[in-house]
Amino acid sequence: MKNITIAIDGFSSTGKSTIAKELATKLKYVYVDSGAMYRAVTLYAMQHNLISEEFFLKERLIDALNNIKLAFKFNPDLGFGEIYLNEVNVETEIRNMKVSRLVSKVAEIPEVRKKLVEQQQQMGINKSVVMDGRDIGTVVFPDAELKIFMTASAEKRAKRRFDEFLDRGEQVTFAETLKNVEYRDHIDTTRKDSPLVKAKDAIEIDNSTLTRKEQFEKVYKCALEIIGSD
Ligand code: CDP
Q1: Domain residues for 71?
Q2: From the CA of 2, how far away is ligand 1's center (Å)?
Q3: The domain that contains 172 carries what CATH number?
Q4: What's the Cα-to-Cα distance from 47 to each of 26, 60, 88, 171, rounded to whole Å?
Q5: Is residue 230 domain-resident?
Q6: Given CB 3.0 to 4.6 Å as the disulfide criterion, which of 29, 93, 154, 177 pairs with 24?
Q7: What spacing in Å lies between the alpha carbon of 133 and ligand 1's midpoint?
Q8: If we measure between CA atoms, which residue out of 67, 72, 66, 9 comes closest to residue 36?
Q9: Which residue puts its alpha carbon closest to atom 21 of ligand 1?
Q10: Model's pTM, two decimal places?
């Protein structure tokens, strides 16, 4: 079987990570959640009082980038790597609403993107990787053999994310969740550096009405067509 690179991009809460994890498990590939890296940098900025709803000390964050060490460590119970920020597991903390409100501002900074993209490219150097994010098929791995672009209506996406927040016991409203999803979509698609766009050669999947199983089968079939074609 041929080793390939699989890039999964799309709007917030489109189920990219679900499909990426399932594919990686099935193919015995490494799964990398690039969004977790932007979230971890945001958490660092919050912990060091460099960003809040009111202010953003961008230059100070850029100066501090060399102090930020990110790593994924495989958790066999979960079947994927959890993210560590300077040796601390922050996998759960980075998913909260406070980080979600600020992450797209951090992800707009070219210096931040440069650092994270380099690390992502390094992680995919041997192929056999499934990475999800916003710019994976366009910037990180423009030569990826399989590119998927996931979409779904904003309401559907906000409902999914709201249910995740509730499961984790976070006190947020549906309206707030929808607002955050739409806000990030806007910043992510309009930023100057690596905006979220569908790569020309990406396969678009709208999963508004697909079950998890149907979605998996669709993407897995696409992967097998490539992997088996050599
Ligand atoms: O899971 P969700 O769709 O909420 O987003 P995520 O994948 O955790 O990404 C969080 C944020 O990081 C996005 O809204 C983007 O602002 C940024 N991001 C990015 O700019 N480029 C990536 N490759 C991945 C995430």
Answers
A1: 5-223
A2: 29
A3: 3.40.50.300
A4: 37, 13, 13, 21
A5: no
A6: 29
A7: 6
A8: 72
A9: 134
A10: 0.96
